[in-house]
Specification:
single chain; 577 residues; alpha/beta; Rossmann fold; seven-stranded mixed β-sheet; 24 helices
């Protein structure tokens, strides 16, 4: 059965990837604080409490029948989860028992691991295994003694090991208090060494010293080198004990840094883009959201000319309550009313850039009146100015098309504004603050169409790491766009819990792109809505990137229109007749 998740301390910046650090026997994740501090500027660092250590679960009686295998299996669960979420590179670091666990994971599942750093790992000879087994009760008694006299133990540790990082003295003692004594009494501190080291096929740095308590030392390194495994790079630091990193931190990190710099790790495969959309990245100006005037000018230069009209649709420019809008009317009777909100990262874009698309959308939905507001843009007008303008456009829509289903449609930032409009109405109906605009909306909503939604200002989802370089929309572009838009607002004001809006939501159609920093927040939003009881349909269109699902003239856009039509005729009364 699945093992309970281990306790962990997570820190850092995953610029280069993820490091997973594992401590020695009777230690804990907190004892790795200096390692986390050293690497957290460029790496996400996950320090694990091993099974039976720190705040992780104790061993069950069944697990104690095979202690090391249980330690390995519990850690493997964490490494597999981190590898699934990491941005390509996963480095395992382990000291002593942690080194044995890390090496075993890399040996059995090399596909999860990019590299290993092993600090005097407990990959033991038969003689060492027998020695630790025979002294298990003595080791357990030492943990009890430290637990009973923590202050004295820390003072003695500081006197004997003055070079240790100050943050690790207390963590060392804490680990002795926390460790599962039943595990300690098994005498298991590692696993046999020879076959693992001979068969490792991931780049490995093996570091040891020469004091009496080391597990490898010069003799052990010599035997490793005699096996001629090309993946193992050995480092011998004379004058250090079993705790090499703590005894000689400057030298240890210098060697480890050099090792990491030398790795020739494979580059991430380029994203798959369907052939008809492959030209879009090269034809789209860079999204320099940190330079808003230049970004807007490039958009005007590219889309400044009036777009072709759609047959059977008339369009006009209207201003209602100081909000300019593009209005698209079908020639026949209006069967639905659509508020279509354009994208542009909340800082760019114009309603008329979507004129042709909105005309085609009217046909796809089936004789729909489509209103697209030119809402105020950040940074000149941060949140909630754009929301208020969109709510005014919603009011206009209801006045122009009374008695027909109301559909909210948004793409990217436009989809974000759709969710924010709904949130504003839900807050009003829950007795919270209401603007003049939100007071004017009276009718229930009939459907929501959310294309590649830009929802969450916190930008913490997995795809913000795996798709941070785009193409087209990047994590850097999103960071500046959200900063412009938020102004002084708290992120929760913009993206609140779905529990607030669930009762007000209508059937919702969500589309995400396989390669897009926004992908996972769209998936999470759809999932949260579904968990809250909202009717949700979600699609990930093959081979799309941000900004491409609604590419005019493409089969992708035609397919999307077909999906939207089917969704609406199935879920909105009056459109399926």
């Amino acid at each position: 059965m699945p093992h309970p998740r281990l306790s962990r301390i997570v820190s850092g910046n995953p610029q280069r990837g993820t490091m997973i650090a594992m401590h020695g026997v009777t230690d804990n994740a907190a004892s790795l604080s200096d390692f986390a501090q050293h690497y957290s500027t460029e790496w996400e660092v996950i320090c694990l409490d091993s099974l039976g250590h720190g705040l992780s679960p104790a061993f069950t009686s069944d697990e104690l029948t095979s202690p090391f295998e249980s330690l390995y299996r519990a850690a493997l669960t964490e490494v597999a989860a981190a590898a699934r979420e990491a941005d390509g590179t996963v480095v395992l670091y382990g000291h002593s028992l942690g080194g044995a666990i890390a090496a075993t994971i890399a040996h059995r599942h090399s596909e999860l691991v990019s590299a290993l750093i092993l600090e005097d790992p407990a990959l033991l000879t038969d003689e060492q295994s027998e020695l630790y087994a025979s002294s298990a009760n003595e080791l357990a008694a030492r943990q009890d003694l430290v637990s009973a006299h923590v202050g004295e133990a820390i003072v003695g540790l500081m006197e004997n090991y003055p070079s240790w990082p100050p943050s690790e003295y207390g963590a060392w003692a804490q680990g002795k208090v926390q460790v599962d004594r039943d595990f300690v009494r098994t005498g298991v501190v590692g696993t046999p060494r020879a076959h693992i080291l001979n068969e490792l096929n991931v780049p490995t740095l093996l570091v040891t010293g020469d004091a009496d308590d080391v597990l490898f030392g010069a003799e052990g390194l010599s035997k490793v080198q005699e096996a001629h495994n090309p993946f193992i790079h050995c480092v011998f630091l004379p004058g250090t004990t079993h705790t090499v990193r703590r005894d000689a931190p400057a030298t240890f990190y210098e060697r480890a840094d050099d090792f990491l710099a030398s790795l020739n790790l494979p580059e991430r495969r380029p994203p798959f883009i369907v052939n008809e959309l492959a030209h879009v990245p090269g034809a789209t100006p860079p999204q320099t959201t940190w330079d808003v005037p230049a970004l807007r000018k490039r958009g005007d230069d590219l889309l400044g000319e009036e777009l072709p009209e759609v047959e059977g649709i008339t369009r006009e420019s209207v201003t209602y309550k100081n909000v300019p809008m593009q209005v698209h009317r079908p020639e026949g009777p209006v069967r639905a009313a659509v508020l279509s909100i354009h994208g542009g990262g909340f800082i760019a874009g114009r309603a008329r850039f979507d004129d042709t698309r909105n005309g085609e959308l009217s046909h796809a939905i089936g004789s729909a009146l489509v209103v697209s507001p030119d809402y105020r843009l950040a940074p000149e007008h941060p949140f909630p100015a754009g929301v208020e303008d969109c709510l005014i456009a919603w009011e206009y829509l209801e006045k122009e098309a009374p008695g027909v289903p109301v559909i909210l449609y948004g793409d990217s930032a436009g989809a974000g504004l759709v969710s924010q409009c709904i949130t504003a109405l839900a807050r009003k109906r829950a007795g919270g603050p209401a603007t003049d605009a939100s007071q004017s909306i009276e009718r229930r909503l009939d459907a929501v169409i959310s294309i590649e939604p830009c929802i969450d200002p916190q930008m913490t989802s997995h795809s913000y790491r795996t798709c941070k370089e785009g193409p087209l929309w990047t994590a850097e572009a999103a960071k500046h766009a959200w900063a412009h838009y938020l102004g002084t607002a708290h992120p929760y004001e913009v993206h609140s819990s779905v529990n607030l809006i669930a009762d007000f939501m209508a059937p919702t159609f969500v589309v995400v792109n396989p390669t897009d920093p926004l992908r996972d927040e769209g998936i999470a939003w759809a999932t949260d809505l579904a968990d809250a009881g909202v009717a949700v349909e979600m699609h990930m269109l093959m081979g799309t990137i941000h900004g491409t699902p609604a590419t005019l003239g493409s089969q992708t856009w035609a397919h999307l229109c077909s999906l939207i039509s089917h969704f609406l005729t199935t879920n909105v009364a009056g459109l399926g007749e």
